[in-house]
Design a protein that fits this description.
By secondary structure, the protein is mainly beta. The chain contains 3 helices and 37 strands. The structure holds cobalt (II) ion.
């Protein structure tokens, strides 16, 4: 008989992090526990679905919830917080009507017509997936539409950002662009997918100039949430996903309703160079939302990619409440290292960690270049699946792991690695995550020393409210607050 470990959390604690947020506003925090590093200066922007219902009518999937931006400003050992919704016309119309008016992409079932419609703006653009400050603009991102531009100080919504008409009003723009550490350029893409897929590549300089837009066709449907950028390549994993009208996708670690993986078909890896035809390699099927990073070995024909792969696409029976998900049946996220050889046309892959992980982070200067350390959200137990309650650091040279867990009552959000100003070592800085603590019934900004995760948080910044489980965000050394203490 196999002993079953007791759960590291209670379902009601976990569920409490999925409550609609209603307290937009701005405030200083006066009760920081521990010591906030005085050289931690800048703004952490976070995005995620904040409104999960309209007048008690719940969205079918949290990914359909309206984007709530949180700005956490660190300056001189103090912390200032602003929360504001992205004021999309859809949010405003639903608030006015007092009921749900739009079908969300993730909670939608439209048998037969889904693919034709899934990137159509008849669906709601919740602007809820990521938020970045680049080229003097704060941009809320959602992958099937252009960004929304926000005022970085007030978080007021300024409107759809087309980069002076470079994007059309409905043009997809990924929530996972990368910043080239050599020059600050934003490397981005957009996907229009149906029976076939059109990929658009964009590049925006650090000064905000939109300087590149090219289009590339790939056959078949492709769900491309994220990509790999290296100095010579843009790389996409076309997982063998097909349309299945029955299941409802579910869960914090999954995206997209109605997706089904064909376990017999290969994953196609598309490697686009600066010019010429892309190279296509094939590997075993798997489903990837997020890439950690990719880099070229000395010979640029060989590329290493770290990513998080799912053995199958996680789905729930139609109509199942996402708050009742059975984590034992959700496939775990596996950290994998791929090595591509473009000359030999080979792919090697190996699993790097046993435990279930999501939300990768690295030092921003290693984007597209060899990283030694990576950071992830993970579950408390070394195996099985559960909500993310811990943060893990992996040294890819030695294999050494270090972990800090917030179980039983803490549930983590995506960690962000904030480099220490003037720091030299790749892990010199702080790992910051917004953690929902059910014991306190509030969210807490947790700041850990990236060189010593196992010491636990060096500072805990309690927020006034519960920030519903978020998606992605980013840090900028800039400060935008205008209201004095
Ligand atoms: Co994502």
């Amino acid at each position: 008989m196999v002993a079953v470990a007791p759960p590291t959390y209670t379902r009601s604690d976990w569920q409490a992090g999925y409550r609609s947020f209603h307290n937009e506003g701005t405030y200083w925090i006066d009760s920081i526990q521990g010591s906030l590093p005085t050289d931690l200066r800048g703004t952490l922007f976070r995005n995620g679905p904040g409104k999960l219902d309209v007048n008690g009518q719940r969205y079918g999937h949290p990914f359909d919830g309206d984007g709530l931006i949180t700005a956490i400003s660190f300056l001189e050992g103090r912390v200032h917080v602003t929360h504001r919704y992205v004021q999309t016309p859809e949010l405003q119309a639903e608030q006015k009507a007092g009921r749900i008016l739009y079908r969300g992409v993730f909670g939608t079932q439209k048998p037969g017509g889904w693919w034709a419609n899934c990137f159509d703006l008849k669906f709601k653009n919740p602007a809820n997936t990521n938020v970045i400050y680049h080229g003097g603009k704060l941009l809320a991102l959602w992958e099937a539409a252009p960004p929304y531009r926000l005022d970085p100080s007030s978080l007021k919504t300024l409107g759809i950002e087309t980069f002076a008409g470079a994007l059309d009003q409905h043009e997809p723009f990924t929530a996972h662009p990368r910043i080239d550490p050599s020059n600050g350029d934003l490397i981005s893409f957009g996907v229009r997918s149906g029976l076939n897929t059109t990929l658009s590549f964009f590049r925006i300089t650090s000064a905000g100039a939109f300087v590149e837009k090219t289009e590339h066709e790939i056959p078949g449907f492709a769900f491309l949430h994220d990509f790999v950028w290296t100095p010579h390549y843009r790389i996409f994993f076309q997982n063998p996903i097909s349309f299945n009208p029955i299941p409802f996708a579910l869960g914090f670690q999954t995206a997209g309703a109605c997706l089904k993986m064909d376990p017999q078909a290969p994953t196609r890896i598309w490697i686009f160079g600066a010019s010429g035809e892309p190279t296509i390699l094939e590997t075993d099927p798997g489903f990837v939302f997020h890439f950690v990073n990719g880099f070229e070995l000395t010979n640029p024909d060989r590329i290493v990619i770290d990513l998080i792969s799912y053995g199958e696409y996680p789905a729930l029976d139609d109509g199942t409440d996402y708050l009742q998900v059975n984590f034992d049946q959700v496939p775990p996220g596996q950290l994998m290292r791929f090595e591509l050889d473009l000359a030999q046309k080979t792919v090697q892959r190996r699993q790097c960690l046993d435990r279930s992980v999501e939300f990768p982070a690295i030092h921003p200067r290693t984007v597209g270049h060899q990283h030694r350390y990576l950071y992830l959200g993970t579950i408390h137990d070394p195996n099985g699946n559960a909500p993310l309650q811990a943060l893990i650091k992996l040294d890819t040279e030695t294999g050494q792991q270090s972990i800090w867990s917030f179980a039983p009552t803490g549930f983590i959000g995506e960690p962000v690695l904030v480099p220490r100003p003037g720091g030299l070592a790749e892990d010199e800085g702080w790992l910051i995550s917004i953690v929902f603590d059910a014991a306190q019934q509030r969210s807490v900004v947790m700041i850990l020393d990236a060189q010593d995760l196992e010491a636990g948080p060096i500072a805990q910044v309690p927020l006034r409210d519960i920030i519903p489980y978020g998606l992605h965000g980013s840090f900028t050394p800039e400060i935008f607050i205008t209201d004095p203490a």
